[in-house]
Specification:
Length: about 350
């Protein structure tokens, strides 16, 4: 009897190679935050330290969930209702935005390694903080099977929080396994991986203090911190891909087609006057210096109810199961009239 085997390159092929660009990758992670019942998801691109930080305040993951879902390809949560993510009792059920369960692999498009930090809350129980370092370059190595790659994981109990020394130690543990995992890999590529591992200078405590300062988050918001029982999932990516800065700068100079931000702006509907408050609010802060940042997608960047009211034409209605639109159309402030559009290609 023969068996299928999966090379480590499978992760790279399904993730980094399938993502068109940074906006697509970030959008996938926004969708994951939505599915985790987060109320906020925020990006801070900190250029001085080449750090890309994406945080949400969702339900987080337990250690078991991190290993058996996040680190497992093709998990059943999308096809088996019994395995759907935990839903907080006070939250209405959300439709799942993630489709194939591989959106998490989009992180590799944003940088070659990520520190994953997650803390779960289930009912009245707050779980330990789970911290893991994932180097995506390992999944580009030839001749390496998926099960050969080990991901360092650490658990921090209440009152504990990872230090820079902890992160460096996890990077060192990966470096020490390189000769065993990739004995046939080209020495130049192994040296490149070692260089990436040495480039991580993340200090989670310092980052938590800086990005949760009152000057950063809006009045009334609670800091997106995993300390003191805070829950959610944070991705700390360093070094971030250099094309991020280039794409953002080109986007800001473009008047006609701001490709980067238009893919992310309006992730939640804040335009229609009578729409319900968005389930999740997304923000993206671009830090070009230590003291100044630019808000790319939050606040008033998206269309407002006033913009909606000033539009020349308004459509209101719905599509049925046969693709037929039925509703009303208002043109230039005239009274709405009923309108039906059939979908002939549907053939009934």
């Amino acid at each position: 009897m023969a068996k299928f085997k999966a090379r480590a390159r499978t992760v790279d092929m399904l993730g980094r190679q399938q993502i068109a660009g940074a906006p697509t990758a970030i959008n996938e992670l926004f969708k994951n935050a939505h599915d985790a019942y987060a109320k906020r998801v925020e990006v801070d691109y900190y250029r001085p330290e080449n750090l890309f930080l994406l945080r949400d305040n969702g339900i987080g993951m337990t250690e078991t969930e991190y290993e058996e879902r996040w680190l497992t390809l093709g998990s059943e949560s999308k096809v088996d209702d019994k395995l759907l993510p935990y839903r907080p009792p006070e939250e209405p059920e959300r439709p799942m935005m993630g489709e194939k369960g591989i959106g998490r692999l989009a992180i590799a498009r944003l940088g070659p390694q990520a520190l994953v930090m997650t803390r779960a809350r289930r009912d009245s129980t707050t779980h330990d903080l789970i911290v893991s370092l994932v180097n995506w370059q390992l999944f580009e190595l030839p001749g390496v099977n998926l099960e050969d790659i080990e991901i360092p994981i650490r658990r921090y109990r209440s009152g504990e929080f990872p230090t820079q020394d902890d992160v460096v130690a996890m990077a060192e543990s990966i470096r020490q396994t390189l000769p065993l995992v990739a004995s046939s890999a080209h020495s130049a590529f192994l040296a490149h991986i070692e260089q990436t591992l040495k480039a991580i200078t993340i200090d989670p405590r310092k980052i938590d203090t800086f990005f949760n300062a009152p000057s950063v988050f809006e009045e009334g918001d609670v800091p997106l911190s995993l300390r003191d029982g805070g829950c959610g999932t944070h991705f700390l990516i360093q070094p971030a891909e250099s094309f991020l800065a280039t794409e953002i700068d080109e986007d800001q100079r473009s008047d006609d087609d701001p490709v980067f931000t238009k893919f992310l702006v309006g992730f939640a509907n804040t335009m229609v006057p009578d729409a319900e408050p968005p389930r999740i609010q997304a923000r993206f802060r671009d830090w070009k210096t230590v003291e100044t940042h630019q808000e790319l997608i939050g606040g008033t960047q998206f269309l407002t109810p006033d913009d909606f009211k000033s539009a020349d034409h308004h459509f209101r209605g719905h599509f049925d199961e046969f693709g037929v639109f039925e509703g009303t159309v208002s043109v230039y402030d005239q009274a709405p009239i009923r309108h039906v559009v059939t979908w002939d290609a549907g053939e009934g």
